[in-house]
Amino acid sequence: MSVRLGVVALVLALCAVSVQSQVWSYVSQSFSLVRSDTLEGADYELLANVTSRDGGENYEERLYPSARWACTARTQPKTESSPTRSMFMNLFRYFSGDNSDKKEIDLTVPVSTFVQQRENDVTYYESCLVLPAKIQSKSPKPNNPSVFLEDKPEAVILTRRSGGYFITDNAWEEEAVALKKILKEKEAEADFSGYYRNGYDAPMRIFNRRNEVWFRKTGATAEKAIADYKKRQAEKAPLTTTAAEAAVEAAKPAAAATTAADDKKKPAEETKKTEETKKPVEETKKTEDKKKVEETKKTEETKKPEAAQNRE
């Protein structure tokens, strides 16, 4: 009996070690997941980094250029919890191949969800992921009718980075209220009718997470920033064209030299081809001449006996 109990105890101990090893392996993998800074993110230009005089609260002013995003939207009663998880899964399936091209698309960051309280105690949610730069101009269509592609215009955003594990609506609301309090003192043109929840990390990442609440900046200042950005982009375009034209011009001498070399080769190649063509003709002629000589010789040899007989 004691032997059996010992065997059972040993088996249980081995199972416990195995389970502990699997759990530790899972935790290790969770910490070694791809960081958000290695994924392609929504491009932006930093306009200002605003810091208070006492060195306390600070925030950033960014300009996001126009871009195409994959989005899904939903409206539901304010009393219900946000549907962002199921909305993200719709976007994730699109990126995983549920699209007209049936091809996987590289995931991007952040997962950006616009939240706005509307009449009749309902909340509007719109979750989006920016499409990678390489497919911005030619994007596959979603198969799911609840997912749509939207070309969003330029926008000036006011935000700050926050750590922590934002898994509840209350966590996002608290950060939105805190940032709103700071912006109200310094940003008269901020739009507080709604805000964006932006997550950059997978749920299994526990530490060093990046979360951001965005408020849009409107008014004359934002419009000027966007106009200046467009002007800079327009000035860059001719420079890019000039560089391309210069590359073409630089390639012309090399192309001309190659053409000249090819032209020199052509007469020699044609002469060689002509000589090669003549050889079979000359050989055929020699063969025919040889045959004629042999036939003439045979004819003469045949005539000799006949002439001898006639003499006799």
Comma- or semicolon-separated keywords:
nine-stranded antiparallel beta sheet, disordered N terminus, alpha+beta, two-stranded parallel ribbon, about 25% strand, Multidrug-efflux Transporter 1 Regulator Bmrr, Chain A, about 300 residues, disordered C terminus, elongated
Folded structure, characterized:
The chain has a domain at 36-218: Regulatory factor, effector binding domain (Multidrug-efflux Transporter 1 Regulator Bmrr, Chain A, Alpha-Beta Barrel). It has 312 residues and is of the alpha+beta class. Residues 3-33 and 304-312 have low confidence and may be disordered. Helix content is 49%, strand content 25%. The protein has 4 helices and 11 strands; from the N terminus they run αββββαβββββαββα. The protein has helices at 2-31, 84-95, 169-186, 220-311, and strands spanning 40-41, 45-51, 58-64, 67-77, 108-109, 111-118, 122-130, 147-152, 155-162, 190-199, 211-217. The strands form 2 sheets. The protein has a 9-stranded antiparallel sheet with strand order 2-3-9-11-10-6-7-4-8. A hairpin with a 3-residue loop joins strand 6 and strand 7.
- Physical arrangement of strands within the biggest beta sheet: 2-3-9-11-10-6-7-4-8
* The CATH superfamily title of the domain at 36-218: Regulatory factor, effector binding domain
Which CATH architecture of the domain at 36-218 is right?
Alpha-Beta Barrel
Q: What's the CATH topology name of the domain at 36-218? A: Multidrug-efflux Transporter 1 Regulator Bmrr, Chain A
Low-pLDDT stretches: 3-33, 304-312
Number of strands: 11
Described by strand count, sense and barrel closure, the largest sheet is:
9 strands, antiparallel
Structural class: alpha+beta
- Strand content is 15-25%
Rg (C-alpha, Å): 41 Å
Mean pLDDT: 79
- Which overall shape is indicated by the principal axes computed on the Cα atoms? elongated
